[in-house]
Amino acid sequence: MFKYRIPSSEINQNASIGHGGYVGQRPLSNFQPERVMTFWQVLCFGVLTTPLAMAGLALVMFIPTFYATEMGLGFTAVGAIFVAGRLFDVITDPLVGYLSDETHSRFGPRKPWILLGVPAFCISAWMLLSPPDDASLLYLAIACALYFLAYTVLDVPYSSIGLEISPDFHERSILAGSKAAFQVIGAITAASIPFVLALPVAQSLGLIAKLVTILGAAGLLLFVLFVPDRIRTVTHPRIGLLSALKQIFASRPYRYLTASFLIVQTANSLTAGLTLLFVTHVIGAPDLIGLFMGLLFLATALFLPLWIWLSRRNGKKATWSVSILLCGVALAATFLLGPGDIIAFAAVCVLVGAAFGCDAIMPTSMLADIVYEGETEGRNRLAGLFLAFKNSASKLTFVVPMGLAFPALDLVGFDKTGSNGSEQLTTLVVFFAGLPILLRLIALSVLKAAPAANDDTPAVTDHGRPA
To answer: Which residue of 53, 243, 387, 450 is surrounded by the most CB atoms within 10 Å?
Structure first.
């Protein structure tokens, strides 16, 4: 077990830097906190993301259809259960975030939750992925509720550690990159199992359940043995949930960052949710959807080091802005595509996948700056609550395709299984690319307008290592 202690002088100096700077801009000081984690420790920190990503990918791609068709429970009932689960998350995420912030134990505030969360998550994932042959809607509802709760109990405290552990601004991006890389590994593994091994969905889900259990246990062991603890004494009295909420939303940089993230994630949800329809009806290559998704995931992983390098040179805000524009340009090209434009759409997938990686790293790293700089000596922990509302915003965006795009497509008479005219295809492209481009431009304007850190709220600044 590795531990380090934050000297009070370092905390006070670190918290004071950035006043007068703008959200996510380059360093305004030569202050250089030292990194606290080795490359091996950074890897050990990220491993737990793999089982979370595997189960999450299976939840999106396979499980609803599996229960609706092969288990015979029906699309409407299954869909209602999963939507209810997402709404349940909106309540439990902030609650778990607050409780983990306020937890006091000899093992720190987060580790007890993680030690509880890993076995609970593995058991609930097994229930969801390997149901009995006679599973009913009641079984699915119980399994879903346990899964969503266990996921939150594990993920919120675990991810909060990545926000608060390092005093080095660049190492925060590296930590976010480690989680993003293992997330891609988990997603690719889960997505490829039915195709590479040529297994039916039921057997594929059973294999994913076994891998989630094994990787969950391995990830927990590596985390406990090698990830350092940050020892920071909290001397302020405990605060209630309402007071904690007032504190986090009093931070103007946090409000602007969360708004930008919410808008970008909404755009990403529209594009991701309509990719299958776009490939099938515009490109005319439904059999290549696996290849296109593989390229997207691969690009996400390969471009992660580039985004981290650029953020160190140019700042996190500037790097994220470049990524947002890059994705917008790539999506604009889809208005020119038609049947058979396979290579061109493959290039679009590479660029969009690359931008998705930056969307995963930069907002998380910028949030870590807010959290760390707000933790002046003795102040209450708020990382869990900060993260929980960001997570809730992200989860809510995934209902946008179902709540906005699908009704609009039905309104113009879009046929999901047959041929469509120009009006229907144009509507599809507008929601797949046009609206996401507009949303990304709005997100850029919000990010650009992020306020100066000249008040008592913490700033998202790239202080630490001069370019």
So the answer is: 387
